[in-house]
Fold this protein.
Amino acid sequence: MRAWSSPDVPALPGRGLPVRLHDTATGSARPLEPEPVASMYVCGITPYDATHLGHAATYVAFDLLNRVWRDAGHDVRYVQNITDVDDPLLDRATETGQDWRELADAETRLFTEDMAWLRVLPPSSYVGAVEAIPLITRLIQRMEPSVYEVDGDLYFSVRTDPAFGAVSRLSEAQMRALFGERGGDPDRPGKKDPLDPVVWLKARPGEPSWDSPFGRGRPGWHVECAAIAMEYLGVPFDVQGGGSDLVFPHHEMSASHAHVVAGAFASLYAHAGMVGLDGEKMSKSLGNLVFVSRLRAEGTDPAAVRLALLSGHYRADREWSAAVLSEAVERLSRWRTSVAAGVGAPAEPVLAEVRERLADDLDAPGALAAIDRWTTTPGTDPGAPALVAATADALLGLAL
Ligand code: 5CA
Ligand code: ZN
């Protein structure tokens, strides 16, 4: 699949710092030591509806890591998938009488436009589930001793992976509850363990299906991301990322699929908090979505949207509201006034502090505070405004 085009990233003087990132699997921040190429997989959209501010917040969070890594001198291999065949997409297409492929194509195109608008750096590989089906079936074959059949559908036996549970560290009861809520089928008779996820669904009437060594059908969700990450990054890779709604079952299962064939998956599991509206997670079923494409159509300044998203820490569950956006609009305008002033307080300490804050588990609010302080400190350095603007652009993706 074609990704979006990259915004320019200005070069900064000196070098960024090695980054420490919170790891869900250990519950603590850990130094990342990507050598020689930094590698990251971030779970992409299921393209059945437009991108909302929650999705955008997650991609902007991992965009910070991409930018911090580049500033520290790494080449970055960034892979993102598109879940372009799955139950929610097929259900939506049926509801609206659309062809599922056309729905997926249209929503994927809208997403790539939204990402370019928000100055998110594109992935180096952007891979759809449908195009990855040969990779997925090959991985299922390699998983064979861990795979069994229930009425023609293939399941993965979680008990065959001794490390199962290591990503989320949840109790059995917590896993059971989340598995049922998030697309799993804990009560299906014939399974070895209620938590076993499907890896290949046999063809059903009216649904798309593809040939495979196990008969016609379509892939399960977790095996899609395992196969794409393993093929495009190899294991172990540095960071598996996504929103915290993916910790269990999705990231636990993808990791387990990879463990049984390769003994490893990601070195670190990073998760962005959920963005909500009116105290609720933004979601389709709650009907409380704010779409990026809507803000774009209304002529909102993309830098203000990005600044609003960065004003909260990426790991914190947080709220989107008109007030969050209008505060960002005002803040951005103050920053732009200072940058346009032609002179300012020396900017080298600002660059150093932004680098230091972002290297500490992507502390964007701390980085923004450093720029706030610069705007309120008088100074006469004629090079300062340009360096502050380059810092905001390269490290935070904000065009001042
Ligand atoms: N296609 C799968 C991942 S393989 C999927 O979860 N798609 S999605 O469209 O539902 O979500 C896309 C990304 O946005 C995921 O990383 C998900 O964790 C994140 N996300 C979804 N809702 C929110 C939210 N309210 N706040 C923050 N991030 C969210
Ligand atoms: Zn995924």
Notes: Residues 43, 81, 225, 250 surround zinc ion (ligand 2) (CB under 6 Å). The chain has a mean pLDDT of 96.
